[in-house]
Fold this protein.
Amino acid sequence: MNGFVELQRPDDAKLSGATARAEVLRERYGELEGEALLRVMLEWEYKGRIALVSSFGAEAAVLLDMVARIDPATPVIFIDSGKLFHHTLTYRGILVRRLGLSDVRTIEPIPFDLAGHDPDGALWQRNPNLCCYLRKVLPLERALGGFDAWITGRKRDHGGERGGLQTIEAVDGRIRFNPLAHWSPENIDDAFRERGLPRHPLSDEGYRSIGCVPCTEPAEADAAARDGRWRGSAKSECGIHHPRWSPTHP
Ligand code: SF4
């Protein structure tokens, strides 16, 4: 495909196996969420086979704190697209020290991919789906290679296709947990206060969902948090949460 790295589609057995496994887990643990769900998965069901994927964005500290309280050595995957706010990199350092996280894995796009398709660094203008694929989707897929399950901070309240999010799901032959799927912005604010967590440096400037510099703006107080992402375009997701085996699946 024009030199793009196209991921292997998981075989049908792996896909259907994960779907069946997710159904079993939902029957057992569908009533759990937050730290209770995390504890079961980190200490029992997927011990040593699960990672948290974190943006170290506006809401990330709550989930990171929950994971750190259970096991600060849990692998945390952080995608540095090369287009992030320097504030996010600073915040990552603050949280790592504060929470005692000992296995934060920063992953990056492969220079060869960028040299071939984004030599001027402006691919986000011409083809944002491909830009996200090279800078986020491919690096994450490589990083998840050794894990059977992963954890995200997505929430129904983010709007769009996240409105029907479940706490336990299957995608790409792996199990994915969204322990805060049902949490509201008020729940998040309360958790920041109760846990004494520092805010992302851009939160005070109206940034409520924080990704790459070219594709992130502040969101109005009465809008969904992700309204500030890819503003003016139909794009609402970077693609890491979709089936990821092709750049045609953004
Ligand atoms: S969010 Fe924007 S800059 Fe970042 S990888 Fe996607 S298109 Fe590129």
User: Anything to note?
Assistant: The first strand starts at residue 50 and ends at 53. Helices lie at 12-29, 34-45, 60-70, 86-99, 111-117, 123-126, 128-143, 185-195.
